[in-house]
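Pasting two entries for a bug report.
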Amino acid sequence: FGHVPILTQPVFADFMQMYGEKAEDMIALGGDEMITRLYWYSAEYGLIQEAGQPVKAFGAGLMSSFTELQFAVESKDAHHVPFDLETVMRTGYEIDKFQRAYFVLPSFDALRDAFAGDDLAGIVTRFKG
């Protein structure tokens, strides 16, 4: 499937548009690692659990690995963490094994709104300080 299907979800597409617009500013502040982590834990390994629904995967990295998809969504050993932008941007990731944590959004609106509303420069400054 790749990365394209999720872009048909309008709110996630809005987030990705903002991501592209703000990434250059974040990199200029020294937040290149942080902006990469946000992409990793959303577009690649994102989970969502809307009100009253089971956890679902939407990240392309999960969709391309049946075993990790099954682990992330179904295993009691998968560490599900409520999505918090600053926590996500401070959390390292694994490129060659299952993630230590999977961040769970309550909605795509929550992702877009957090990214639009948070003081990204402040997050980078606190991380770098």
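Entry 2 (this is the one that rendered wrong in the viewer):
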Amino acid sequence: MPKNKTNPNPQAPAPSIDEFADLCAALDASGRACNAKTKEDSRWCPHHDEERIKLYINYKAHHTALNAFPEHSICHSVGAIKGCTSLETIRAWNKTLLQKYQLLNRCNLLWEKLRTRLARYCAPAKSKFYNERIAIIHACVRRAIYTDTKLLVVAQNYKNVMALLTDNTLDVQIVEKLWNAIRLLYVYEVRAAIDDVLRPKDGPGEYVTVLGGRVYKDPSGISFPFHAWGHITALFQCYSCVRRVCTTVDEVVTLTRFVVLNMNGLSQSNLKYDIPYDGSKVLSLCGFIPNSVDTFPPRSVVSKCNCVYNGVPHWEETAVSYVLCAGLPLTDPQSSVFVNACLRDPSLMVIVRKGAAGCIIKSVERVWAERMRHANTRAGLKTAEWDPARAVYYQDSVLEEACPRVYDTKVLEDCFQVVLVDGGQGTMADFVKKISDIWLDKVYKVADTIQLITEIAIPIVKSGELEIDYGKRGPALVMANLETDVLKAYKRLWGRAPVELVDDDIFQRIPGPIPGPKK
């Protein structure tokens, strides 16, 4: 009898379902199982079970709204309508048709608002960053969809962003949710969308695929190139809003330089880059950007006191010093040159600290904020000594005002914290002019603002990060960050003219204060 041959490499039996009964059966976009521990008496982990319930509830609500529309009550027969003798029936048909017409108009209006808003974000067609801007607009749409579970379900039926945005058969509820998600997209999501586009495709990071593109869970941490600040200021035309996403002082300086060189004219609320003094543009270009410029009283106030002091009436003079606080980037070698120039200037009192844990350096032992002196006559005040017992001095805590503020509860401490105090004569405008002259004469060694702009802008232009528009007529100018002709941008983006010109509510995009970044 022949013996049964045995397999030298026996295969393990296929795993049974019972072996994975306690592992979550949910699949991600790549088809990989979650494999997390399931809830009791459930096939899903707590997270996916909650998401399943949300999807089911939204699905039921959507179909309930569709089924509630009285489609059956619409008469589609012209003969039946003409032959109907019941006024109430005709009124019911008319009311239903009118309701459907209004919903259709509402849907068309929302589509035009949405498409006009996205066209407004486009760069000029001759810009080499035009296609990159389009990719970032699509990334913003993905981010907006990613924030809404119902939109995520709808997005699974489309291959890319344009397929979704050109589908005129979408339900009005979906279009309205999509419009609100894009309209109310916060600046943190816009920065994340730019990071999605600019980060290396082969780099690390978890992501999900939405409409054919990647939405990453965490930021890459790479520094934005100079031109990238043009993308974010195109979508958020508010300096204070964009500054909220800056994570380092270098980013604050780069953002401000882009805004000044590009002449965007961003709106300014609590944080400003253009203070109303001659020379403020020099300070912004050089990276000396105060959080605020306070309004100070007159330098000196003289008053006569009718009380008896030492037996006779006397005159008092109260003097105040003016102060400017700013944080300079540690990576810029010009920061050290500027600080040393200020320390050598006899007309300035300086307090400086390098970094949050650095040593505090002062040009004088005590920096006064207010001081007083008195004399028996007004003329005697000029030669009278200042009374040290009645002087007010700045404490070291004033350096906190130098740290660049990005929003109410966050400041950037890793910088050159510089406090400049002027106890001389002149107005605040004279003080700002004095500081700007130090930057021009002692640091960059140029004659005026035009030469300073040339000194700073030429390397950026040569690197290709700042585009120059060499027009056929007139002088060469920095290329605009946005397409000024919205109609032309609309036709180029969507391939047709708009059905009607609509207001895309660009000035009503943020209903209330902007929240902080999500943790």
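Dev reply: Rendering is fixed now. As a check, the viewer should reflect this: Residues 61 and 331 are 55 Å apart (CA to CA).
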